[in-house]
From TrEMBL:
Its EC number is 3.1.-.-. Pfam families: Helicase_C_2 (PF13307), RNase_T (PF00929). This is 3'-5' exonuclease DinG. Keywords: ATP-binding, Exonuclease, Helicase, Hydrolase, Nuclease, Nucleotide-binding. The lineage of its organism: Bacteria, Bacillati, Bacillota, Bacilli, Bacillales. It comes from Halobacillus campisalis.
Length: 931
């Protein structure tokens, strides 16, 4: 059995090259899965320990003042690694510091075999939401009493290693055989352990019970599809009464269940809408329990009438809540399985035939491809969906995923007996009572001639205030340089010579011409993007409008952009000419491959035909979107076109957009006029207690059959929330820098009272960035952690998790943080709204919409800008109170909410709560007394 030396270091910083030093080392030596030796020592670093490191580890300068120098323990440390695998969680960090210190002491670098438990965990626990040591140890119930202390971290890393190797030994033989081929490009040297696992698996009698082989790949056996019938009461009222009030209903599945009047009312209104074939607008305040309410009625109607109901959401978090929380509660209450299925587009599901093909061609893999293949191989022994959202592929793994997703198999008639997760998802959806999907798939289904959802006549649209913005994206154009380059590169790679084992001379000539056409297209694309980038950067309009993540936005207009448009159109036509050549060559390649696909026993020609079909479709999509993008804009007043560029970075970071300015007619025709019942619900549908704005936006006609209802929240907002507005902030229009300084000072002062736990919402990315850096100057790193959207690394969910992971932290967010972010309980005590959420001036779609409203003789501010801002304000306000026990402060830095004529509309849109308008110092004193 191998020997493992598991090491963890605490250091003064991240880079030994910048003179950072080790302050603590912990080593655990394992043999036969047992600890045979432990070593731990603080180390005098010969420099000060930064406050942040002290905050993280608890180690300060006094602790290490009498500790040995590394040179005093170097020989003992060096000996512990003799004839052992070196193991660490993120080994490049630890080994880099170790070798730097050892070299400085005259020792040669350690060049043992290594195992990185981050990498190994990614392969063997591919569905883990995080690969940080603390998160993994918590998920696996390892004891980890002293995180960020070297010996404790090394001990837990040792436990993780044993767990991972045990997981490896349980894998099926075929998975291990494939892993043996693809893992040679990984950092960790675990070939010996895969071979040992293969030896063990041959003596396991039960190895095939859980798995089956599809295209030579071991996959988990899929559960049988729904077949059982569902018993249901004839009387809806009686059925609902038993669920809500009976001892065998929700009281059985939820220990703390309390009947809420609003929830019962919501169920009744949904049932009424479905049975009477009426549309409905249902606003349900926080805590109503609206998702459980509409699912209950949708399920009853579906079973009773044998008609599926679609539920569409905007966020994946709500989808997960419906499937993993609400549906199981209903199933337990009814004591029967509920047929509810999540349904996504083809691009989410793996195609095993294409993955098998890529496995056979692994010789030229780079690191990310090898890691992606390894993760997918193990994941396939666990998944019953084939949905890639279950795992986190490496940074460039998405490039690989495009090659193996079910998108590649749209015309899979040529692929005989393809086992398909997408077809399995379709089958489950066809048998389900409730199909849960997202607004993107819904809009794709509305816009496309190809159906993306099973047929339906009744739909519940939750988070309905987001439908218009999602639909705008799908009924418009979104192109960017990087994605176009990726698509062209993939067309070249997928049809390179290494993929062809048959084809002949004529085919190789086509391949050569195809490669040349792609190179020409890339060159033309580069020239077009460089011309647009430089032209926009030089424009006097550049920088006047910015997106919520800081990109410069440039609206295209005929009059001011005539020269730019004419030249861009000419360059685009040259690019599209090359796209057309690529398409013709691929059609010729199809003709060459068809005979081989019909006669060959190999699946290769059929797979390549599928990929050719997919690539041809991409070429046609590029042609359709770019063909008239730069042509005169006057022809379509209902369209906004604009380009976004990164303020800094390469000249090719360029994004092209167009969106319809008004969608009401399109949505009326394709959704509300074609479906029997469309139920739109959200916590924020009304403005000034009226549904008129949302009805106008979505194209809902004001007929007598429309059901409209506002169901208030059961929470005691007047007891749990205080709203505070300072009266001594400088006017942002007079002096933005002074305003930002006042915001930062107020955040810092409030943070001492709330102990961080503060979400700060901005409408301007520039203002967020300036506030972030000012706070970094004001605040000592050991006091508070500060996270800023677009400044700190990570997605919205990652920033939220980091914010919640630290006891004292402050989170700054722009548009996407105004809604859909749940931070319940003590994690959030204070919500700061820096500015009322009007769209920044000059936003392309906003400007065009205001122009159209003005042409109709109406006031664009009152008819459009104000109602839209009120809905966003209500969403932002909703971030603070997420349960009946939450309490906190809403601090609004924008005095317009008190002083302007329209401020009353914002205040009347939220529950009645105490409002205080005082000096900042008095407000902070009141906050301290109240909290």
């Amino acid at each position: 059995m191998a020997t493992f030396a598991v090491v963890d270091l605490e250091t003064t910083g991240n880079a030994s090259s910048k003179k950072d030093r080790i302050i603590e080392i912990g080593i655990v030596v394992l043999k036969d899965s047992r600890v045979v030796k432990e070593f731990s020592s603080l180390v005098y670093p010969e420099r000060d320990i930064p406050p942040f490191i002290t905050s993280l580890t608890g180690i300060d300068d006094e602790d290490v003042s009498h500790a040995p120098l590394f040179s005093e323990i170097a020989e003992e440390v060096y000996g512990l690694f003799k004839n052992a695998y070196i193991v660490a969680h993120n080994i490049e960090f630890d080994l880099g510091f170790l070798n730097a210190e050892l070299n400085a002491c005259g020792f040669s670098s350690l060049n043992n075999q290594i195992i990185d438990t981050v990498e190994l965990a990614r392969v063997l626990i591919p569905t883990s939401p995080s690969f940080k040591l603390g998160r993994i140890s918590e998920a696996l119930n390892f004891g980890h009493d002293r995180p960020h202390r070297a010996l404790s971290d090394a001990q837990v890393t040792g436990e993780l290693l044993i767990y991972l190797l045990d997981s490896l030994y349980k894998l099926p033989e075929r998975t291990l055989t494939h892993l043996l081929k693809v893992t040679s490009k990984l950092k960790s040297g675990f070939r010996e352990f895969i071979e040992e696992a293969l030896n063990r698996v041959r003596y396991r009698a039960d190895q095939e019970e859980e798995y089956t082989l599809w295209h030579g790949i071991a996959v988990r056996k899929l559960p049988s599809a729904h077949t059982d019938g569902f018993e249901i009461s004839e009387n809806y009222e009686e059925w609902l009464e038993n669920l809500y009030e009976g001892e065998e209903g929700f009281k059985r599945s939820m220990l703390d269940f309390e009947q809420r009047e609003g929830q019962r009312k919501m169920s009744d209104l949904v049932h009424q809408s479905l049975t009477e074939r009426r549309h409905a607008l249902l606003e349900a305040g926080a805590g109503t329990g609206k998702s459980l309410a509409y699912l209950v009625s949708a399920l009853y109607y579906s079973i009773k009438n044998q008609q599926r109901i679609v539920v569409s959401t905007h966020t994946t978090s709500l989808q997960n809540q419906l499937l993993k929380d609400e549906v199981p509660k209903i199933a337990e209450a009814l004591d029967q399985p509920v047929k509810a299925e999540l349904f996504k587009g083809r691009s989410h599901y793996i195609s095993l035939v294409h993955f098998s093909y890529e496995l056979e061609n692994s010789v030229h893999d780079n690191y990310d491809e090898a890691l992606a293949k390894s993760m997918i191989l193990v994941w396939l022994t666990q998944t019953t969906t084939g949905d890639i959202d279950e795992i986190q592929l490496p940074s460039n793994g998405q490039q690989f995923w495009h090659k193996v997703s079910a998108e590649q198999s749209k015309k899979a008639v040529q692929l005989k007996s393809e086992a398909s997760y997408f077809e399995w998802a379709e089958k489950k959806a066809s048998q389900a009572n409730i199909i849960i999907t997202n607004h993107s798939i819904l809009c794709l289904d509305l816009i496309s001639s190809e159906k993306h959802l099973p047929p339906y006549d009744k739909i519940i649209i939750d988070e309905g205030h987001q439908l218009e913005s999602v639909a705008s994206r799908y009924f418009g154009i979104r192109l960017n340089y990087k994605e176009l380059q990726r698509q062209l590169s993939q067309m070249g790679e997928q049809f390179s010579e290494r993929y062809f084992k048959e084809g002949g001379t004529a085919f190789m000539q086509l391949l050569d011409r195809h490669r040349q056409a792609i190179d020409k297209a890339k060159d033309e694309l580069n020239q077009l993007m460089r011309y647009l980038y430089q032209g926009i950067r030089k424009s006097r309009q550049a920088g006047k409008s910015k997106s919520d993540i800081g990109r410069i936005q440039y609206s295209l207009e005929d009059e001011k952009d005539k020269r730019l448009l004419e030249t861009a159109e000419e360059m685009t036509n040259r690019f599209l000419s090359n796209i057309s050549s690529i398409k013709r060559l691929m059609l010729s390649m199809k003709d060459q491959l068809l005979p081989a696909a019909r006669s060959s026993s190999s699946k290769e020609p059929a797979i390549l035909l599928n990929r050719l079909d997919h690539s041809i479709m991409i070429c046609e999509k590029i042609e359709n979107q770019l063909y008239s993008y730069f042509s005169p804009l006057e022809a379509n007043e209902n369209e906004a076109k604009w380009i976004e560029i990164e303020g800094e970075g390469p000249n090719h970071s360029l994004y092209m957009f167009s969106e319809p300015v008004q969608l009401n007619q399109i949505l009326r025709e394709r959704l509300f006029s074609s479906k029997q019942s469309v139920i739109v619900t959200s916590a924020t549908l009304t403005t000034n207690r009226s549904f008129n704005f949302i009805k106008g936006s979505l194209g809902i006609t004001n007929d007598n059959r429309l059901i409209e209802e506002n169901i208030p929240s059961p929470y005691s907002f007047d007891q749990n929330v205080k709203l505070m507005v300072p009266n001594d902030f400088p006017n942002v229009r007079d002096n933005q820098e002074e305003f930002i300084y006042s915001v930062s000072e107020a955040i810092y002062s409030m943070a001492h009272i709330t102990k961080g736990r503060m979400l700060v919402l901005f409408t301007s990315y520039d203002m967020l960035k300036k506030t972030y850096y000012l706070l970094k100057e004001l605040i000592n790193p050991e006091e508070y952690m500060i996270f800023g959207q677009g400044v700190s690394s990570g997605s919205r969910d990652r920033l939220k998790k980091n914010f919640q992971a630290f006891d004292q932290s402050i989170l700054l967010g722009t548009s996407s943080f105004w809604e859909g972010v749940d931070i319940p309980g003590d994690d959030l005590s204070c919500l700061v709204i820096v500015r009322l959420p009007f769209q920044p001036p000059g936003q392309p779609v906003q400007s065009k919409r205001e122009q159209l409203v003005r042409q109709l003789g109406k006031n664009p501010f009152m008819e459009y800008s104000l109602p839209e801002a009120i809905i966003r304000f209500r969403q932002g306000f909703g971030r603070l109170i997420r349960s009946s026990t939450d309490r906190g402060i809403v601090f609004i830095c924008d005095q317009r909410i008190i002083e302007s004529s329209y401020g009353k509309y914002f205040l009347s849109s939220i529950p009645d709560i105490p409002v205080t308008h005082e000096s900042t110092n008095k407000l902070i004193k009141q906050m301290e007394d109240w909290l």
